[in-house]
Design a protein that fits this description.
Blueprint: E1 3-12, E2 18-34, E3 37-49, E4 53-61, E5 85-88, E6 93-96, H1 101-121, E7 131-136, E8 150-155, H2 160-164, H3 166-178, E9 185-189, H4 197-206, E10 213-216, H5 227-231, E11 239-243, E12 249-252, E13 255-256
Parallel strand pairs: 8-9, 9-10
Antiparallel strand pairs: 1-2, 2-3, 3-4, 5-6, 7-10, 8-11, 11-12, 12-13
Length: about 260
C-alpha cells in the first residue's frame, strides 16, 4: 500500500490569518525488502500552492539497490518531533505526536459517536434551515428547491480557506445566472452575533457577494456555531452538504450515503 507524507505550511499576511498555503507531499509508491529492511525504490515529491495548484513534481526511481553493511531497522523509521499533527486516515482521527494513549482513546470514542450521528441523518430528509437573518437574497427553505439538487455551503468570514474560495463560488453563481438559471445553492454563515453582524454585512458588500447568504441561528446550548450547523454535524469549515432531488441528505463533507 502506498505511503504518503503531507506537510502543510501556511503564510500570514496580517499576523494571525493565513491566506496562502504550500503543501509538500511525498509519496512512496513502491518498496523493496533488502536484508530484512524495506527500502523505497519508487517515490515522488509534489509541491502545491494555495492548496490545489500543482507547482512542481519530482520523481525518484531506484534501478539497483544493495546494502554494503548491516543497519539497524530503527535507522529507517520515521520519527517526528513532539507536537507534529498526524491524520490517521484509517481510523479517521487527527492527533499530535506525543499525545497520550488516553487522548487517542478519547478521539476514537468521539469518532464513533460521529459515525453514529451521521448514520442517523444521512439518507434521511435533510434537516431544516434556521436563520437568524438572511444577509443576501430572500429567505429560502429547502422545500422551495425540492426537485433540484441543492448544495448547502457552510463558511464564515474569519476562515481563511473559506475566504480564498469565495471568488470562485461567486463566479460560478454568476455564470449560471448568465446561462438563464441559478444553481440550487445556499450558503450558511456559521457564527456571528448581533455585534459581528455589521462587520459580516460590510465584508459581503465589499466582496460583491450576490449568492444567498444565511446567518445561522444561534444555538442556545452553544454546542457549535449555530442550530443549522449542529443539525448537519458541521464543526469544520468550509464544508458542503448535498441534498438530492427528493430532499434527502446525501453528503456532509467527506461523509456520504454508502452505495
Amino acid at each position: 500500500m502506498p505511503v504518503r507524507l503531507t506537510i502543510d505550511e501556511a503564510t500570514s499576511s496580517d499576523g494571525h490569518r493565513a491566506f496562502a498555503w504550500r503543501i509538500s507531499e511525498m509519496r512512496i509508491e513502491k518498496a523493496r525488502r533488502v536484508s530484512g529492511i524495506w527500502m523505497p525504490v519508487e517515490a515522488s515529491l509534489s509541491t502545491y500552492r494555495n492548496s490545489n495548484e500543482l507547482h512542481s513534481i519530482s520523481r525518484l526511481t531506484v534501478e539497483k539497490l544493495t546494502l554494503n553493511q548491516v543497519h539497524a531497522p530503527e535507522r529507517f523509521k520515521l520519527n517526528f518531533p513532539t507536537g507534529y499533527g498526524v491524520y490517521d486516515q484509517i481510523r479517521g482521527i487527527s492527533y499530535k505526536v506525543g499525545d497520550s494513549d488516553a487522548r487517542v482513546a478519547q478521539l476514537l470514542s468521539e469518532r464513533r459517536k460521529e459515525d453514529e450521528f451521521f448514520k442517523r441523518i444521512l439518507g434521511k430528509p435533510a434537516p431544516d434551515l434556521s436563520a437568524a437573518q438572511w444577509l443576501v437574497g430572500k429567505p429560502l427553505k429547502l422545500s422551495d428547491l425540492k426537485g433540484r439538487k441543492v448544495t448547502i455551503h457552510f463558511w464564515n468570514i474569519w476562515c481563511a480557506p473559506c475566504v480564498a474560495e469565495l471568488g470562485a463560488l461567486q463566479e460560478r453563481y454568476e455564470e449560471a445566472g448568465r446561462a438563464g438559471s441559478t444553481p440550487a445553492f445556499i450558503s450558511v454563515h456559521t457564527g456571528g452575533g448581533a455585534k459581528e453582524r455589521p462587520q459580516i454585512q460590510k465584508f459581503l458588500k465589499e466582496h460583491k457577494i450576490t449568492f444567498p447568504v444565511m446567518l445561522d441561528a444561534p444555538d442556545p446550548e452553544e454546542k457549535g456555531w449555530g442550530l443549522t450547523s449542529e443539525r448537519y454535524g458541521v464543526f469544520a469549515i468550509p464544508t458542503d452538504a448535498i441534498v438530492d432531488e427528493k430532499g434527502l441528505l446525501m453528503e456532509v463533507g467527506d461523509r456520504r450515503v454508502e452505495p
